C-alpha cells in the first residue's frame, strides 16, 4: 500500500518551488501532475530531479486537447500511470500503444491503478501540493494505520535507498508526526519508553526519504539515508542489524566513494580516477572482452570487470548508482507509439500499408518517420543524432589504407581497388586527352542536360570569382593589399559507390576551372562491368580540362592524390563528397604535415531537414525527404513540422510510404528512414532554432511565405525556398553547388564555391612617412614580447631616416 495522500501538482512553474518549500511532500513518494498545466520538459525534469518521487502519475483532463504525440512524450518522460475520465479516453490511450495497466479510469470516487502499486487512489485524498501540510500528511497516515499490539505501536521496517533492510523498530503516533515534520528517522524506543531520534547520541543520523505501508496497513516501511560518519545503523557498529551487507554493486559504489576520497597516490584506483584516458581504454577493453566471452563463467567474469570500471566512471563523475537505476526505471516506462493504429482513418483504403510487423527497419513494415514532440528535449536530442560511426572507429579502418598507399603507391591502389570495388586494373590512371571510346553510350540528351547544368553552375560561380586586388591605406604611407591566386593543383573526388555522380564532377570541376586552377585531377571508383568510369564523368572531365582521372575510390583514392604516386601528381587540395571512408581519409591527410594538403570540408552522407507547415503539400514534402534518403543507408532526413495537424502528419507519412515503395532503392530508403524522424513544433521560431542547432546540409522550407523566414537561417549548407524548389534542382542544374558540409559542420563551413579553389595573399608597402606613423607602435609591442630583432628592424631604419636619435635605446 502506498502513502494514503496523492499530492497533486497543478502548475509547471511551481513544481520545483513547492517541493523546496514543502520537502515533506516527497515522503509520500508519489505525485500526480496536471498535464493540462505542465509542459513535457517540466514533467521530465520533475521526474529526473526528484528521485524520492518513485511513482509519478499524470492527469489527462477530458476538456484538455492534447495530441497523441504529446501523450507519448509525457509517458516517455517517466509518467507511470495516466489518470483519465472515462473508458473512451482509456481506449484512445491503448490504441496509441500505452498498456492497459498504465491507465487508471475515474470510477467516481477513485482512480484504480494496477501498475507497480496496486492501489485505488481516493479522490478526496488527491490533495493540491501547494496547500498540503505536515499535519495532514501525518494524520492521513495514522488514520490509515492499524495495530493489534497492546502498546499501540506500529512495527516499522527501516531500509536504505536501495531497499536493503537495516533493521526493525517501532513507531508511535507522536514519533510519526515528528518524523514527517523533521524528515529524519524518529521512532519510539520500547526499552526507554520514549521518543527516539536515531543518531542523536551516536551521530549516525538518518535522513527520511520515503514512507510506505504494507498491504494490510499494519506495518510501516521507512526508507532512509544514513548520514553519520560511519553510516552504521546497528548499535553494534555494523551497517544493518543483520550484519554487514554483501559486496555487490552498492557495496562497490560505497567502497569506490571512500577510495575516491582517500585512495593512496600510487594505487591503481587512484590512477584510474586521475587518468580519464586510461579509464576510457579500460571500459572499451572490458566491453570488447564481454562481447567476445562465450561460456557462462567467462561472461560473468567479464561483466563483473566491465561493471567495476563503469562504476569507477560513475564515482569519478559524481553520478550515483541510484541515478542509473532511476534511468533504467524511466527507460522501462517508455512506450513506443503503435505505428498506423491511431491514424488508420487517414490512410487511403486502396493503398493502406500493412502495419509494421516488427521494427521500422523490418523489410515489410511501414516506411514512416518516428514522430517526436519538440517539447520532449531528450527525444529531440536522440532524433537529431546522426547515424555515423565514431571518428576513432572509422579512423581505425582508414589509417592502414592511407599508410599503405602512401608507402606503396600504385601497387597498393590497385590492390585496394580489387578488394573494395572488385575491379582488377593494370593501370589506375586515365590520362587526358581521354580516348573517344570512353564517351561511348553518351546520348545527345545527356550532353544537353550536362551542358545546361554546367552553364548554370559556371554563371553562378563566375559571379563569385574574386579578381580584384583589395587595397586599403591604413595610415598615410602604409598600403595594405590582398590579391587572389588559384590553388595550383586540385584533386576532385567523385563518388561512385552506391551511385555514380557525374553531377558532382561538374559541381567540382566547373568552379575549379572558373578559378583557373592549373591542374585538375579527378578520382572516382571504376565500375565493375568494365573497369571504367561512366562516360558522363569523362565528358565533364574533358569539358573542365582535367588532366587525369584516377580510377579509384574511397580512402585509397584520397591518399593517392594527397601524397602522389608514380603516376598521380600530389595535389594541394582535395575536394568533394564521399562516404565515411572518403571523409575520414580527407580529414586524416589534412592533419598530416607530410601530405601538405588541405581539404574543402567534411562532406559526408547526404542529409536534409524539411520545415513544413499546414500549407505544405504532403507529396512534395515526402518526395524531398526521399530524394536524400535514397543516397545511402547512412543518410538522414528530418521533418520539422510547425503546428501540423494529425491529419497532415498522416498524409505525409502515407505519401512517404507510397512513394518509397515505388523506388528502386527502396531498401536503402527503408534503412535511412529507420534512423530519421519528424519533430513537431508549435512555432516557426522553435522550428528554426532546432534547424540551426542541427545545421543541416540542405534546408527545405515548405511553409507559407517561405522567403520571409530566410533571415532566421543561421546554419545550413544550402536553402531551398518554397514549394516549387525541390532539393534536386540544387543537386543538378540550378547553379548552386551541391558539395556541402554535413554532420553539422554547416555551423562553421560554407559549401564548395569559387573561393574554395582560391587563396588570398596579402601584401603591404610602407613609405618613410608610413614608418614614422607606425614604427614606434611596432617597437613598443616588440619590446613587451622580448623580440629585439623585430624592434631593431624598425629602429635601424628610423634612425637612418632621422626619425629617431642615434642614441635611441
Ligand atoms: N555532402 C555532399 O555534398 C554530398 C554530395 C554528393 C554525395 N554525397 C554522399 O556521398 C556518399 C557517396 O558514398 P558512396 O559509398 O556511394 O561512394 P564513395 O565513392 O564515396 O565510396 C565508395 C568507396 O568506398 C570504399 N569502401 C566501401 N566499403 C569500404 C570498406 N568496408 N572499407 C574501406 N573502404 C570501403 C570503396 O573503395 C569504394 O570505392 C553518399 O553518402 C552521399 O550521400 C554527399
Ligand atoms: N544531394 C547530394 C549532396 O548531398 C548531391 C547529389 C548528387 N546527385 C544527386 N544528389
Ligand atoms: Zn542528392
Automatic annotation (TrEMBL):
What cofactor does this protein call for?
Zn(2+)
Q: List the GO molecular function terms.
A: ATP binding; histidinol dehydrogenase activity; metal ion binding; NAD binding; phosphoribosyl-AMP cyclohydrolase activity; phosphoribosyl-ATP diphosphatase activity
Q: Which reaction does it catalyse?
A: L-histidinol + 2 NAD(+) + H2O = L-histidine + 2 NADH + 3 H(+); 1-(5-phospho-beta-D-ribosyl)-5'-AMP + H2O = 1-(5-phospho-beta-D-ribosyl)-5-[(5-phospho-beta-D-ribosylamino)methylideneamino]imidazole-4-carboxamide; 1-(5-phospho-beta-D-ribosyl)-ATP + H2O = 1-(5-phospho-beta-D-ribosyl)-5'-AMP + diphosphate + H(+)
Q: Name one Pfam family in it.
A: PRA-CH
Q: Kindly tell me the pathway this chain contributes to.
A: Amino-acid biosynthesis; L-histidine biosynthesis; L-histidine from 5-phospho-alpha-D-ribose 1-diphosphate: step 9/9; Amino-acid biosynthesis; L-histidine biosynthesis; L-histidine from 5-phospho-alpha-D-ribose 1-diphosphate: step 2/9; Amino-acid biosynthesis; L-histidine biosynthesis; L-histidine from 5-phospho-alpha-D-ribose 1-diphosphate: step 3/9
- Entry keyword set: Amino-acid biosynthesis, ATP-binding, Histidine biosynthesis, Hydrolase, Metal-binding, Multifunctional enzyme, NAD, Nucleotide-binding, Oxidoreductase, Zinc
- The UniProt record lists the EC number as 3.5.4.19, 3.6.1.31, 1.1.1.23
Segments forming domain Phosphoribosyl-AMP cyclohydrolase: 168-242
Q: Name one GO biological process term.
A: L-histidine biosynthetic process
Which CDD domains does the UniProt record give?
Histidinol_dh (cd06572), NTP-PPase_His4 (cd11546)
**Gene Ontology cellular-component annotations:** cytosol
Chain segments annotated as transmembrane: none
Is Amino-acid biosynthesis one of the keywords UniProt gives this record? Answer: yes
> What is the similarity comment for this entry?
In the C-terminal section; belongs to the histidinol dehydrogenase family.
Q: Which PANTHER family would you find in this protein's record? A: HISTIDINE BIOSYNTHESIS TRIFUNCTIONAL PROTEIN, HISTIDINOL DEHYDROGENASE HDH
Under which name does UniProt file this protein? Histidine biosynthesis trifunctional protein
- Which organism is this protein's natural source? Lachancea lanzarotensis
**Lineage, please?**
Eukaryota, Fungi, Dikarya, Ascomycota, Saccharomycotina
Amino acid at each position: 500500500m502506498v502513502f494514503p495522500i496523492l499530492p497533486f501538482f497543478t502548475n509547471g512553474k511551481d513544481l520545483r518551488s513547492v517541493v523546496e518549500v514543502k520537502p515533506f511532500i516527497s515522503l509520500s513518494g508519489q505525485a500526480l501532475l496536471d498535464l493540462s498545466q505542465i509542459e513535457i520538459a517540466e514533467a521530465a525534469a520533475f521526474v529526473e530531479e526528484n528521485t524520492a518521487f518513485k511513482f509519478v502519475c499524470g492527469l489527462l483532463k477530458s476538456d484538455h486537447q492534447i495530441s497523441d504525440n504529446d501523450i507519448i512524450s509525457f509517458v516517455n518522460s517517466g509518467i507511470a500511470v495516466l489518470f483519465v475520465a472515462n473508458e473512451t479516453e482509456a481506449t484512445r490511450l491503448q490504441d496509441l500503444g500505452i498498456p492497459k495497466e498504465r491507465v487508471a479510469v475515474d470510477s467516481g470516487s477513485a482512480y484504480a491503478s494496477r501498475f507497480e502499486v496496486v492501489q485505488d487512489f481516493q479522490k478526496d485524498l488527491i490533495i493540491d501540493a501547494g496547500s498540503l501540510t505536515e499535519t495532514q500528511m501525518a494524520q492521513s497516515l495514522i488514520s490509515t494505520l492499524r495495530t493489534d499490539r497492546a502498546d499501540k505501536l506500529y512495527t516499522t521496517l527501516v531500509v536504505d535507498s536501495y531497499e536493503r533492510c537495516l533493521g526493525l523498530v517501532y513507531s508511535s503516533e507522536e514519533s510519526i508526526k515528528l518524523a514527517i515534520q523533521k524528515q529524519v528517522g524518529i521512532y519510539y524506543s520500547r526499552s526507554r519508553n520514549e521518543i527516539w531520534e536515531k543518531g542523536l547520541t551516536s551521530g549516525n543520523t538518518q535522513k527520511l526519504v520515503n514512507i510506505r505501508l504494507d498491504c494490510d496497513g499494519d506495518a510501516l516501511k521507512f526508507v532512509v539515508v544514513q548520514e553519520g560518519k560511519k553510516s552504521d545503523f546497528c548499535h553494534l557498529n555494523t551497517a544493518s542489524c543483520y550484519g554487514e551487507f554483501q559486496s555487490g554493486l552498492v557495496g562497490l559504489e560505497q567502497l569506490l566513494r571512500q577510495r575516491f576520497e582517500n585512495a593512496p597516490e600510487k594505487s591503481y584506483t587512484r590512477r584510474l580516477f586521475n587518468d580519464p584516458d586510461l579509464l576510457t581504454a579500460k571500459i572499451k577493453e572490458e566491453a570488447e572482452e564481454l562481447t567476445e566471452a562465450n561460456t557462462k563463467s567467462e561472461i560473468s567474469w567479464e561483466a563483473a570487470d566491465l561493471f567495476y570500471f563503469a562504476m569507477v566512471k560513475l564515482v569519478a563523475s559524481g553520478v550515483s548508482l541510484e541515478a542509473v537505476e532511476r534511468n533504467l526505471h524511466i527507460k522501462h516506462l517508455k512506450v513506443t507509439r503503435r505505428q498506423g493504429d491511431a491514424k488508420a482513418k487517414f490512410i487511403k483504403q486502396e493503398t493502406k500499408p500493412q502495419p509494421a510487423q516488427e521494427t521500422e527497419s523490418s523489410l515489410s513494415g511501414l516506411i514512416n518517420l518516428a514522430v517526436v514532440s519538440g517539447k520532449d528535449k531528450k527525444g529531440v536530442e536522440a532524433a537529431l543524432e546522426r547515424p555515423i560511426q565514431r571518428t576513432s572507429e572509422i579512423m581505425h579502418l582508414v589509417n592502414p589504407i592511407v599508410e599503405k598507399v602512401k608507402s606503396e603507391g600504385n601497387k597498393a591502389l590497385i590492390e585496394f581497388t580489387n578488394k573494395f570495388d572488385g575491379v582488377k586494373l593494370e593501370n589506375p590512371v586515365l590520362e587526358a586527352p581521354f580516348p573517344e571510346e570512353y564517351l561511348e553510350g553518351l546520348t545527345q540528351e545527356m550532353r544537353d542536360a550536362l551542358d545546361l547544368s554546367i552553364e548554370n553552375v559556371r554563371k553562378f560561380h563566375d559571379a563569385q570569382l574574386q579578381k580584384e586586388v583589395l587595397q586599403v591605406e591604413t595610415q598615410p604611407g602604409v598600403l595594405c593589399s590582398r590579391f587572389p591566386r588559384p590553388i595550383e593543383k586540385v584533386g576532385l573526388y567523385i563518388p561512385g559507390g552506391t551511385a555514380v555522380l557525374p553531377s558532382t564532377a561538374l559541381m567540382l570541376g566547373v568552379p575549379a576551372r572558373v578559378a583557373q586552377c592549373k591542374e585538375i585531377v579527378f578520382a572516382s571508383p571504376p565500375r565493375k562491368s568494365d573497369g571504367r568510369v561512366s562516360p558522363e564523368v569523362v565528358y565533364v572531365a574533358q569539358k573542365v580540362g582535367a588532366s587525369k582521372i584516377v580510377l579509384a575510390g574511397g580512402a585509397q583514392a584520397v591518399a593517392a592524390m594527397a601524397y602522389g604516386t608514380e603516376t598521380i601528381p600530389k595535389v594541394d587540395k582535395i575536394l568533394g563528397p564521399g562516404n565515411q571512408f572518403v571523409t575520414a581519409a580527407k580529414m586524416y591527410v589534412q592533419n598530416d604535415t607530410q601530405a601538405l594538403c588541405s581539404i574543402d570540408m567534411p562532406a559526408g552522407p547526404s542529409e536534409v531537414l524539411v520545415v513544413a507547415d499546414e500549407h505544405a503539400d504532403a507529396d512534395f514534402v515526402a518526395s524531398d525527404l526521399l530524394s536524400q534518403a535514397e543516397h545511402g543507408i547512412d543518410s538522414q532526413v528530418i521533418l520539422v513540422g510547425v503546428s501540423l495537424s494529425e491529419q497532415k502528419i498522416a498524409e505525409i507519412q502515407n505519401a512517404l510510404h507510397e512513394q518509397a515503395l515505388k523506388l528502386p532503392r527502396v531498401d536503402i530508403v527503408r534503412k535511412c528512414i529507420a534512423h530519421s524522424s519528424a519533430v513537431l513544433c508549435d512555432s516557426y521560431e522553435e522550428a528554426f532554432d532546432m534547424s540551426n542547432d542541427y545545421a543541416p546540409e540542405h534546408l527545405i522550407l515548405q511553409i507559407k511565405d517561405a522567403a520571409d523566414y530566410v533571415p532566421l537561417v543561421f546554419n545550413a549548407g544550402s536553402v531551398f525556398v518554397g514549394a516549387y524548389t525541390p532539393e534536386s534542382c540544387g543537386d543538378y542544374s540550378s547553379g548552386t553547388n551541391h558539395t556541402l558540409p554535413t554532420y553539422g559542420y554547416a555551423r562553421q563551413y560554407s559549401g564548395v564555391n569559387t573561393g574554395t579553389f582560391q587563396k588570398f595573399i596579402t601584401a603591404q608597402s610602407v613609405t618613410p612617412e608610413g614608418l614614422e606613423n607606425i614604427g614606434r607602435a611596432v617597437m613598443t609591442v616588440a619590446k613587451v614580447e622580448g623580440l629585439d630583432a623585430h624592434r631593431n628592424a624598425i629602429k635601424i631604419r628610423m634612425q637612418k631616416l632621422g626619425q629617431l636619435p642615434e642614441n635611441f635605446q
